[in-house]
Amino acid sequence: MEYEFKIAAVNLSGVGEFSNSSEFVAAQDPKKPPGKVTGLKVTETSYNHLVLVWTKPEEKPEIQAEAKGYFVEIRQAECIDWSRCNIIPIIMTSFTVKGLKSMDIYWVRVIATNDGGDSDPQELANYVLAMPAPVRPRFTHHKMKNFMVVRAGNTVRITVNFEASPMPEIMWLKDNVPVTRRVTVSNSDGSSQLLIPSSERSDSGTYSILVKNLVGQETCCTEVRVTDDPKPPGPVELEENVPGTVTVMWDPSPDEKRDDRLHYTLIAQQQRTWWQGLGPPSPQRTSPSLPRFFLNRRTRSVRSTPPFLLFSSRSSTRRRCSVSVLYCAVIESGSSCCTPSGSLLK
């Protein structure tokens, strides 16, 4: 049954005129408020927003009516008052809460509503941290070099890209010790760069980066070799202890301890001629006018057959043959040499 209503004012003089009729209203029992929403959960978080989803409450006759909308409320961990995120009830069963403070803790709840009133609030079981979902650090620069050679005085630059959430702690080490102040480190969201503006030989070593957050940690390494013109080896000595054999001996270069990729090479010169390189000492390196060399790397000595004694076919005058040791790097960063202490003449 539907009804319409009119209203008239009454005083001691009587009843006044009636108002216009109201709209028709159906007579029914009072409406029940809805039940609590179910399945409330967070599907996405960031430093400034979060996304909620839930399931519509069931309609139960005589107990709870159908929900017509929803309110979302939040409060920070240190507050006791709830703040309503939407003034007008929303119809959808999802909502994005914006304007969060990075790394703050929030409690969240959802209230269903209809013409009969509001439901009891449904609160998340745990608080929400305003940050992206945790991600274990991992490196994304797959082509990063694990070995580089730099000439002294040039710039050393190592850039590493990574993914991690929350923002990780970043530490650079050289040979497992934190880098010194002469090394500049620049960090940004998703990358880190190590810079040495003007490198020195002492900057050689293994540089490693440690990326760590609350989920885990990762590390990677790059070996840096700073090279320069090596210092010459010590004095050269010539000995002929065995007839037909000359042994060339020398003290090691001071740089040998700092670079295991360096080696020694010999050059020889007959009197009043240009120096001629013999290349890396090897039985295969021979010359019609120069002796054959045999290298003993353990003792840093070279012997030759025949010895440095050359005779002229036109006279009995013996020619002198000088020998110098040339010390050079495999990476061709430069070379240096020292002259022999004397020539061998019998």
How would you sum up this structure, described in words?
This protein is mainly beta. It contains no helices and 32 strands. It has strands spanning 2-3, 8-11, 14-18, 25-26, 38-45, 49-55, 69-76, 83-84, 94-98, 105-114, 117-118, 122-123, 128-129, 135-139, 147-151, 156-165, 169-174, 177-178, 184-188, 191-196, 205-212, 217-227, 236-242, 245-250, 262-270, 276-279, 292-296, 301-305, 310-311, 318-319, 321-329, 335-338. The strands form nine sheets. Strands 7, 8, 10, 11, 12 and 13 form a six-stranded antiparallel beta sheet that branches. A five-stranded mixed beta sheet has the order 15-22-21-17-18, with no helix packed on it. The protein has a four-stranded antiparallel beta sheet with strand order 14-16-20-19, with no helix packed on it. A hairpin with a 6-residue loop joins strand 7 and strand 8 (83-84). The radius of gyration is 44 Å and the shape is rod-shaped. Mean pLDDT is 78; it is low at 274-334 and 338-346.
